[in-house]
Design a protein that fits this description.
The structure holds two protein chains of two kinds.
Chain A (H helix, E strand, L loop, with lengths): L2 H37 L8 H51 L1 H14 L3 E4 L18 E3 L7 E2 L4 E2 L3 E7 L5 E7 L6 E4 L5 E7 L2 E8 L2 E7 L6 E6 L4 H10 E3 L1
Antiparallel strand pairs in A: 1-7, 2-12, 3-5, 4-5, 5-6, 6-11, 8-9, 9-10, 10-11
Helix pairs in contact in A: 2-3
Chain B lengths: L1 H36 L5 H14 L1 H6 L2 H24 L23 H8 L4 H5 L5 H12 L4 H8 L3 H21 L8
Protein backbone atom coordinates (compact mmCIF):
# COMPACT_ATOMS: atom_id res chain seq x y z
CA UNK A 1 0.00 0.00 0.00
CA UNK A 2 1.46 3.37 -1.03
CA UNK A 3 1.53 6.38 1.23
CA UNK A 4 -1.20 8.01 -0.88
CA UNK A 5 -3.42 4.94 -0.48
CA UNK A 6 -2.85 4.97 3.27
CA UNK A 7 -3.82 8.64 3.47
CA UNK A 8 -6.87 7.97 1.29
CA UNK A 9 -7.95 5.17 3.62
CA UNK A 10 -7.52 7.40 6.67
CA UNK A 11 -9.58 10.10 4.97
CA UNK A 12 -12.39 7.67 4.12
CA UNK A 13 -12.23 6.24 7.64
CA UNK A 14 -12.61 9.69 9.19
CA UNK A 15 -15.50 10.64 6.93
CA UNK A 16 -17.23 7.37 7.68
CA UNK A 17 -16.68 7.88 11.40
CA UNK A 18 -18.56 11.18 11.13
CA UNK A 19 -21.47 9.54 9.31
CA UNK A 20 -21.60 6.72 11.86
CA UNK A 21 -21.50 9.20 14.74
CA UNK A 22 -24.57 10.93 13.33
CA UNK A 23 -26.18 7.52 12.88
CA UNK A 24 -25.35 6.48 16.47
CA UNK A 25 -27.05 9.61 17.76
CA UNK A 26 -30.29 9.05 15.82
CA UNK A 27 -30.22 5.30 16.55
CA UNK A 28 -29.85 6.07 20.27
CA UNK A 29 -32.80 8.46 20.16
CA UNK A 30 -34.90 5.82 18.42
CA UNK A 31 -33.90 3.22 21.04
CA UNK A 32 -34.83 5.58 23.89
CA UNK A 33 -38.29 5.96 22.34
CA UNK A 34 -38.52 2.18 21.99
CA UNK A 35 -37.58 1.83 25.66
CA UNK A 36 -40.37 4.23 26.63
CA UNK A 37 -42.80 2.03 24.75
CA UNK A 38 -41.47 -1.15 26.41
CA UNK A 39 -41.82 0.43 29.86
CA UNK A 40 -45.56 0.66 29.18
CA UNK A 41 -45.73 -2.94 28.00
CA UNK A 42 -46.31 -5.44 30.86
CA UNK A 43 -45.27 -8.35 28.63
CA UNK A 44 -41.77 -6.85 28.31
CA UNK A 45 -41.10 -7.16 32.04
CA UNK A 46 -37.83 -8.89 32.93
CA UNK A 47 -38.34 -11.83 35.34
CA UNK A 48 -37.42 -10.94 38.93
CA UNK A 49 -35.01 -13.88 39.22
CA UNK A 50 -33.15 -12.81 36.08
CA UNK A 51 -32.92 -9.22 37.29
CA UNK A 52 -31.50 -10.35 40.65
CA UNK A 53 -28.82 -12.49 38.98
CA UNK A 54 -27.84 -9.69 36.63
CA UNK A 55 -27.56 -7.20 39.49
CA UNK A 56 -25.22 -9.67 41.19
CA UNK A 57 -23.19 -9.79 37.97
CA UNK A 58 -22.92 -5.99 38.02
CA UNK A 59 -21.78 -6.00 41.65
CA UNK A 60 -19.20 -8.72 41.06
CA UNK A 61 -17.80 -7.33 37.79
CA UNK A 62 -17.56 -3.69 38.92
CA UNK A 63 -15.59 -4.88 41.97
CA UNK A 64 -13.32 -6.99 39.76
CA UNK A 65 -12.69 -4.14 37.31
CA UNK A 66 -11.99 -1.68 40.16
CA UNK A 67 -9.57 -4.18 41.70
CA UNK A 68 -7.80 -4.68 38.37
CA UNK A 69 -7.59 -0.92 37.84
CA UNK A 70 -6.10 -0.34 41.31
CA UNK A 71 -3.52 -3.05 40.59
CA UNK A 72 -2.54 -1.31 37.37
CA UNK A 73 -2.31 2.04 39.17
CA UNK A 74 -0.11 0.48 41.84
CA UNK A 75 2.19 -1.06 39.21
CA UNK A 76 2.37 2.28 37.38
CA UNK A 77 3.22 4.05 40.65
CA UNK A 78 5.92 1.49 41.48
CA UNK A 79 7.29 1.84 37.95
CA UNK A 80 7.59 5.61 38.40
CA UNK A 81 9.18 5.10 41.81
CA UNK A 82 11.74 2.67 40.38
CA UNK A 83 12.53 5.08 37.55
CA UNK A 84 12.97 7.97 39.99
CA UNK A 85 15.26 5.81 42.14
CA UNK A 86 17.29 4.78 39.09
CA UNK A 87 17.69 8.41 38.00
CA UNK A 88 18.70 9.42 41.53
CA UNK A 89 21.28 6.61 41.66
CA UNK A 90 22.66 7.57 38.24
CA UNK A 91 22.87 11.25 39.16
CA UNK A 92 24.46 10.45 42.49
CA UNK A 93 26.92 8.02 40.86
CA UNK A 94 27.87 10.56 38.20
CA UNK A 95 28.31 13.36 40.72
CA UNK A 96 30.29 11.08 43.03
CA UNK A 97 32.58 9.98 40.21
CA UNK A 98 33.11 13.41 38.68
CA UNK A 99 33.27 15.77 41.63
CA UNK A 100 35.92 15.43 44.37
CA UNK A 101 34.00 17.98 46.42
CA UNK A 102 30.84 15.88 46.18
CA UNK A 103 32.79 12.75 47.15
CA UNK A 104 34.20 14.56 50.16
CA UNK A 105 30.74 15.77 51.14
CA UNK A 106 29.28 12.29 50.81
CA UNK A 107 32.05 10.73 52.84
CA UNK A 108 31.60 13.37 55.50
CA UNK A 109 27.93 12.56 55.62
CA UNK A 110 28.60 8.83 55.84
CA UNK A 111 31.07 9.38 58.60
CA UNK A 112 28.59 11.52 60.46
CA UNK A 113 25.90 8.91 60.03
CA UNK A 114 28.07 6.09 61.26
CA UNK A 115 30.68 7.29 63.71
CA UNK A 116 32.01 3.86 64.46
CA UNK A 117 33.32 2.49 61.17
CA UNK A 118 34.48 4.25 58.02
CA UNK A 119 34.70 2.06 54.92
CA UNK A 120 37.06 3.80 52.57
CA UNK A 121 36.42 2.42 49.09
CA UNK A 122 38.53 4.21 46.57
CA UNK A 123 36.33 3.98 43.51
CA UNK A 124 37.27 0.52 42.21
CA UNK A 125 37.59 0.19 38.47
CA UNK A 126 37.82 -2.94 36.39
CA UNK A 127 41.36 -4.08 36.71
CA UNK A 128 41.52 -7.87 36.65
CA UNK A 129 45.06 -7.98 35.39
CA UNK A 130 47.16 -5.62 37.45
CA UNK A 131 50.31 -6.37 35.47
CA UNK A 132 48.69 -4.98 32.35
CA UNK A 133 47.33 -2.04 34.28
CA UNK A 134 50.63 -1.05 35.79
CA UNK A 135 50.52 -2.44 39.32
CA UNK A 136 53.71 -1.10 40.85
CA UNK A 137 56.53 -3.43 41.63
CA UNK A 138 58.00 -1.02 44.14
CA UNK A 139 57.57 2.27 45.94
CA UNK A 140 59.91 5.23 45.89
CA UNK A 141 59.70 7.34 49.02
CA UNK A 142 61.07 10.81 48.46
CA UNK A 143 61.11 11.81 52.08
CA UNK A 144 61.26 9.94 55.40
CA UNK A 145 61.76 11.33 58.89
CA UNK A 146 65.33 11.31 60.03
CA UNK A 147 66.59 7.87 61.00
CA UNK A 148 63.93 5.96 59.07
CA UNK A 149 64.80 3.62 56.20
CA UNK A 150 62.69 1.67 53.81
CA UNK A 151 62.96 -2.11 54.28
CA UNK A 152 62.36 -4.95 51.85
CA UNK A 153 58.70 -5.65 51.30
CA UNK A 154 57.06 -7.63 54.08
CA UNK A 155 54.58 -8.97 51.58
CA UNK A 156 54.31 -8.67 47.85
CA UNK A 157 51.94 -10.16 45.28
CA UNK A 158 50.52 -9.17 41.94
CA UNK A 159 47.69 -7.41 43.75
CA UNK A 160 49.27 -5.92 46.85
CA UNK A 161 52.45 -4.67 48.42
CA UNK A 162 53.24 -4.12 52.09
CA UNK A 163 56.39 -2.24 53.14
CA UNK A 164 57.73 -1.17 56.53
CA UNK A 165 59.99 1.78 57.15
CA UNK A 166 61.78 1.56 60.50
CA UNK A 167 64.39 3.33 62.60
CA UNK A 168 66.82 2.08 65.20
CA UNK A 169 64.56 3.14 68.07
CA UNK A 170 61.86 0.64 67.02
CA UNK A 171 59.78 3.25 65.22
CA UNK A 172 57.73 1.98 62.29
CA UNK A 173 55.79 3.39 59.35
CA UNK A 174 53.59 0.94 57.41
CA UNK A 175 52.82 1.43 53.72
CA UNK A 176 50.11 -0.71 52.09
CA UNK A 177 49.31 -0.62 48.40
CA UNK A 178 46.36 -2.50 46.95
CA UNK A 179 45.52 -2.89 43.30
CA UNK A 180 42.14 -1.52 42.36
CA UNK A 181 40.20 -4.79 42.23
CA UNK A 182 37.53 -3.73 44.62
CA UNK A 183 39.75 -3.92 47.69
CA UNK A 184 38.95 -1.28 50.24
CA UNK A 185 40.39 -0.18 53.53
CA UNK A 186 38.19 -0.16 56.59
CA UNK A 187 39.02 2.15 59.45
CA UNK A 188 37.66 2.05 62.93
CA UNK A 189 36.79 5.66 63.66
CA UNK A 190 34.73 5.15 66.82
CA UNK A 191 35.94 7.74 69.28
CA UNK A 192 38.54 8.89 66.74
CA UNK A 193 40.27 12.11 67.69
CA UNK A 194 40.21 13.36 64.14
CA UNK A 195 39.02 12.25 60.74
CA UNK A 196 38.54 14.26 57.62
CA UNK A 197 39.24 14.41 53.89
CA UNK A 198 42.28 16.05 52.52
CA UNK A 199 44.11 16.37 49.25
CA UNK A 200 47.11 14.13 48.69
CA UNK A 201 49.04 14.34 45.46
CA UNK A 202 46.01 16.16 44.00
CA UNK A 203 43.74 13.25 44.89
CA UNK A 204 41.03 12.96 47.49
CA UNK A 205 42.28 11.26 50.63
CA UNK A 206 41.34 10.74 54.24
CA UNK A 207 43.23 11.14 57.49
CA UNK A 208 42.25 9.48 60.76
CA UNK A 209 43.86 9.94 64.15
CA UNK A 210 42.89 7.48 66.82
CA UNK A 211 44.62 5.93 69.80
CA UNK A 212 47.91 7.67 68.88
CA UNK A 213 47.84 6.11 65.42
CA UNK A 214 47.93 8.30 62.34
CA UNK A 215 46.51 6.91 59.14
CA UNK A 216 46.28 8.40 55.64
CA UNK A 217 44.70 6.74 52.60
CA UNK A 218 44.25 7.90 49.03
CA UNK A 219 44.10 6.69 45.47
CA UNK A 220 47.00 7.10 43.08
CA UNK A 221 45.45 8.55 39.91
CA UNK A 222 48.13 7.14 37.59
CA UNK A 223 48.07 3.50 38.68
CA UNK A 224 44.58 3.56 40.24
CA UNK A 225 46.08 1.83 43.27
CA UNK A 226 44.80 2.43 46.78
CA UNK A 227 47.54 3.49 49.20
CA UNK A 228 47.49 3.66 52.98
CA UNK A 229 50.26 4.69 55.31
CA UNK A 230 50.03 4.49 59.06
CA UNK A 231 52.23 4.97 62.05
CA UNK A 232 52.06 5.51 65.81
CA UNK A 233 55.59 6.83 65.90
CA UNK A 234 55.46 9.93 63.70
CA UNK A 235 53.06 12.85 63.78
CA UNK A 236 50.44 13.86 61.19
CA UNK A 237 52.67 16.41 59.54
CA UNK A 238 55.42 13.84 58.97
CA UNK A 239 52.92 11.30 57.66
CA UNK A 240 51.54 13.84 55.20
CA UNK A 241 55.03 14.66 53.98
CA UNK A 242 55.71 10.96 53.41
CA UNK A 243 52.42 10.61 51.55
CA UNK A 244 53.21 13.52 49.27
CA UNK A 245 56.63 12.08 48.44
CA UNK A 246 55.53 8.54 47.55
CA UNK A 247 55.88 7.46 43.93
CA UNK A 248 54.74 4.07 42.67
CA UNK A 249 57.13 2.56 40.15
CA UNK B 1 -5.77 2.25 53.96
CA UNK B 2 -6.44 5.27 51.75
CA UNK B 3 -6.11 3.41 48.40
CA UNK B 4 -8.63 0.84 49.59
CA UNK B 5 -11.04 3.61 50.56
CA UNK B 6 -10.65 5.20 47.11
CA UNK B 7 -11.09 1.82 45.51
CA UNK B 8 -14.32 1.33 47.44
CA UNK B 9 -15.60 4.76 46.33
CA UNK B 10 -14.78 4.07 42.67
CA UNK B 11 -16.32 0.64 42.96
CA UNK B 12 -19.50 2.11 44.49
CA UNK B 13 -19.73 4.81 41.81
CA UNK B 14 -19.25 2.30 39.01
CA UNK B 15 -21.77 -0.09 40.51
CA UNK B 16 -24.34 2.66 40.98
CA UNK B 17 -23.81 3.93 37.42
CA UNK B 18 -24.11 0.47 35.88
CA UNK B 19 -27.06 -0.54 38.05
CA UNK B 20 -28.96 2.61 37.07
CA UNK B 21 -28.22 2.02 33.40
CA UNK B 22 -29.33 -1.60 33.59
CA UNK B 23 -32.53 -0.89 35.51
CA UNK B 24 -33.44 1.90 33.09
CA UNK B 25 -32.87 -0.11 29.91
CA UNK B 26 -33.24 -3.75 31.00
CA UNK B 27 -36.43 -4.24 28.98
CA UNK B 28 -34.82 -2.84 25.88
CA UNK B 29 -31.76 -5.06 26.36
CA UNK B 30 -33.91 -8.18 26.68
CA UNK B 31 -36.13 -7.15 23.79
CA UNK B 32 -33.18 -6.60 21.41
CA UNK B 33 -31.50 -9.82 22.52
CA UNK B 34 -34.69 -11.84 21.94
CA UNK B 35 -35.09 -10.42 18.42
CA UNK B 36 -31.78 -11.94 17.42
CA UNK B 37 -31.63 -15.22 19.35
CA UNK B 38 -35.23 -16.23 18.54
CA UNK B 39 -35.46 -18.82 21.33
CA UNK B 40 -32.16 -20.41 20.33
CA UNK B 41 -30.66 -19.63 23.74
CA UNK B 42 -31.45 -17.99 27.07
CA UNK B 43 -31.61 -14.17 26.85
CA UNK B 44 -30.31 -14.06 30.45
CA UNK B 45 -26.96 -15.39 29.21
CA UNK B 46 -26.79 -12.80 26.43
CA UNK B 47 -27.57 -9.85 28.70
CA UNK B 48 -25.23 -11.21 31.37
CA UNK B 49 -22.32 -11.49 28.90
CA UNK B 50 -23.11 -8.06 27.47
CA UNK B 51 -23.05 -6.54 30.97
CA UNK B 52 -19.62 -8.04 31.63
CA UNK B 53 -18.35 -6.50 28.36
CA UNK B 54 -19.96 -3.15 29.18
CA UNK B 55 -18.43 -2.98 32.64
CA UNK B 56 -15.00 -3.34 31.00
CA UNK B 57 -15.86 -0.22 28.98
CA UNK B 58 -17.27 1.89 31.80
CA UNK B 59 -15.07 4.90 31.08
CA UNK B 60 -16.30 4.93 27.45
CA UNK B 61 -19.92 4.56 28.55
CA UNK B 62 -19.58 7.45 30.99
CA UNK B 63 -18.09 9.69 28.29
CA UNK B 64 -21.07 9.33 25.93
CA UNK B 65 -24.25 11.36 25.94
CA UNK B 66 -27.50 9.51 26.61
CA UNK B 67 -28.53 8.57 23.02
CA UNK B 68 -24.99 7.48 22.12
CA UNK B 69 -24.74 5.54 25.39
CA UNK B 70 -27.99 3.68 24.72
CA UNK B 71 -26.80 2.92 21.21
CA UNK B 72 -23.53 1.55 22.65
CA UNK B 73 -25.46 -0.50 25.19
CA UNK B 74 -27.77 -2.07 22.64
CA UNK B 75 -25.06 -2.57 20.01
CA UNK B 76 -23.12 -4.55 22.61
CA UNK B 77 -26.20 -6.68 23.32
CA UNK B 78 -26.79 -7.24 19.60
CA UNK B 79 -23.20 -8.24 18.94
CA UNK B 80 -23.18 -10.56 21.92
CA UNK B 81 -26.37 -12.20 20.66
CA UNK B 82 -25.09 -12.48 17.08
CA UNK B 83 -21.82 -14.02 18.20
CA UNK B 84 -23.64 -16.52 20.41
CA UNK B 85 -26.08 -17.50 17.65
CA UNK B 86 -23.18 -17.82 15.24
CA UNK B 87 -21.48 -20.16 17.70
CA UNK B 88 -24.61 -22.24 18.38
CA UNK B 89 -25.65 -22.59 14.75
CA UNK B 90 -22.07 -22.94 13.44
CA UNK B 91 -22.76 -20.35 10.77
CA UNK B 92 -20.90 -17.26 9.63
CA UNK B 93 -21.87 -13.71 10.42
CA UNK B 94 -22.98 -13.17 6.79
CA UNK B 95 -25.93 -15.51 7.19
CA UNK B 96 -27.27 -13.93 10.37
CA UNK B 97 -30.01 -11.38 9.83
CA UNK B 98 -29.99 -8.82 12.59
CA UNK B 99 -32.30 -6.36 10.92
CA UNK B 100 -35.45 -8.30 10.02
CA UNK B 101 -37.10 -6.72 13.03
CA UNK B 102 -36.06 -3.31 11.81
CA UNK B 103 -39.14 -1.10 11.62
CA UNK B 104 -37.99 2.35 10.76
CA UNK B 105 -38.24 4.98 8.10
CA UNK B 106 -35.65 3.56 5.80
CA UNK B 107 -35.31 3.10 2.10
CA UNK B 108 -36.55 -0.27 0.93
CA UNK B 109 -35.72 -1.40 -2.55
CA UNK B 110 -39.43 -1.32 -3.39
CA UNK B 111 -39.92 2.24 -2.11
CA UNK B 112 -41.16 4.88 -4.53
CA UNK B 113 -38.94 7.86 -5.43
CA UNK B 114 -41.37 10.20 -3.64
CA UNK B 115 -41.21 8.04 -0.56
CA UNK B 116 -37.44 8.03 -0.63
CA UNK B 117 -37.24 11.83 -0.93
CA UNK B 118 -39.71 12.27 1.93
CA UNK B 119 -37.75 9.99 4.22
CA UNK B 120 -34.42 11.62 3.37
CA UNK B 121 -35.64 14.78 5.04
CA UNK B 122 -36.18 13.11 8.39
CA UNK B 123 -33.25 10.76 8.86
CA UNK B 124 -29.49 10.72 8.24
CA UNK B 125 -28.03 9.54 4.95
CA UNK B 126 -26.34 6.43 6.27
CA UNK B 127 -29.34 5.44 8.33
CA UNK B 128 -31.47 5.41 5.18
CA UNK B 129 -29.40 2.81 3.35
CA UNK B 130 -28.35 0.85 6.46
CA UNK B 131 -30.90 -1.92 6.06
CA UNK B 132 -29.80 -2.50 2.46
CA UNK B 133 -26.28 -3.38 3.58
CA UNK B 134 -25.45 -7.05 4.09
CA UNK B 135 -25.33 -8.37 7.68
CA UNK B 136 -21.55 -8.75 7.71
CA UNK B 137 -20.95 -5.14 6.62
CA UNK B 138 -23.36 -3.87 9.24
CA UNK B 139 -21.65 -5.94 11.88
CA UNK B 140 -18.17 -4.71 10.92
CA UNK B 141 -19.19 -1.06 10.72
CA UNK B 142 -20.97 -1.16 14.08
CA UNK B 143 -18.00 -2.94 15.66
CA UNK B 144 -15.50 -0.39 14.40
CA UNK B 145 -17.48 2.86 14.61
CA UNK B 146 -20.06 2.30 17.35
CA UNK B 147 -18.00 0.16 19.68
CA UNK B 148 -14.49 1.29 18.63
CA UNK B 149 -13.31 -2.33 18.61
CA UNK B 150 -9.75 -3.17 17.59
CA UNK B 151 -9.00 -5.40 14.59
CA UNK B 152 -8.02 -8.29 16.88
CA UNK B 153 -11.28 -8.11 18.85
CA UNK B 154 -13.39 -8.01 15.69
CA UNK B 155 -11.45 -10.89 14.16
CA UNK B 156 -11.91 -13.03 17.28
CA UNK B 157 -15.66 -12.39 17.38
CA UNK B 158 -16.45 -13.25 13.79
CA UNK B 159 -13.73 -15.83 13.18
CA UNK B 160 -11.53 -14.16 10.58
CA UNK B 161 -7.82 -13.34 10.58
CA UNK B 162 -6.90 -10.01 12.21
CA UNK B 163 -5.03 -9.02 9.04
CA UNK B 164 -8.26 -9.40 7.06
CA UNK B 165 -10.29 -6.97 9.18
CA UNK B 166 -8.90 -3.82 7.55
CA UNK B 167 -9.73 -5.13 4.07
CA UNK B 168 -13.21 -6.29 5.16
CA UNK B 169 -13.90 -2.86 6.66
CA UNK B 170 -12.73 -1.17 3.49
CA UNK B 171 -15.16 -3.33 1.47
CA UNK B 172 -18.00 -2.53 3.89
CA UNK B 173 -17.37 1.21 3.52
CA UNK B 174 -17.29 0.89 -0.29
CA UNK B 175 -20.62 -0.96 -0.27
CA UNK B 176 -22.18 1.74 1.90
CA UNK B 177 -20.77 4.44 -0.36
CA UNK B 178 -22.14 2.70 -3.47
CA UNK B 179 -25.59 2.42 -1.87
CA UNK B 180 -25.53 6.12 -1.01
CA UNK B 181 -24.67 6.98 -4.62
CA UNK B 182 -27.23 4.51 -6.03
CA UNK B 183 -29.96 6.15 -3.95
CA UNK B 184 -29.16 9.64 -5.14
CA UNK B 185 -27.43 10.93 -2.05
CA UNK B 186 -24.29 12.99 -1.94
CA UNK B 187 -21.16 10.93 -2.21
CA UNK B 188 -19.30 11.96 0.95
CA UNK B 189 -15.97 10.94 -0.56
CA UNK B 190 -16.24 12.99 -3.72
Amino acid sequence: MTNHEKLQEKYEDSLFALLMDEFAQSEGERLIQENERLLQDPSAEVPAGSERRLLQTIERETARVAHKRSGKNLLRFLGHLALAALIAVLLFGSAFALSPAFRAGTLNLLMQIDDRVASWELLPEINDNPAQNGFPLDVEIGWLPEGYVKNEPVYSSEFSLFIKCTNNSGGSIDISIESDTGTFFTFDIENAEFYNELSIQNSLGIMIVKDDWYRIAWKDEDTKCNIMIQSADVDAEALLSIAESIILV
Amino acid sequence: MLPFAILAIEDDNDRAFMTDLFLKYKRLMYSEARKIIKNQCDPDNIVNTALVKLIEKLSTLRSLDEPQRVNYLITTVKHTALTEVQRLTKTTIDSLDDEDWYERDQIRSEDSVEGQVERRESVGQLEQIWVLLDAKSRYLLRARYFLAMEDGEIAAEIGIKPNSVRMELSRARKKARQLLVDHGMNDPWS
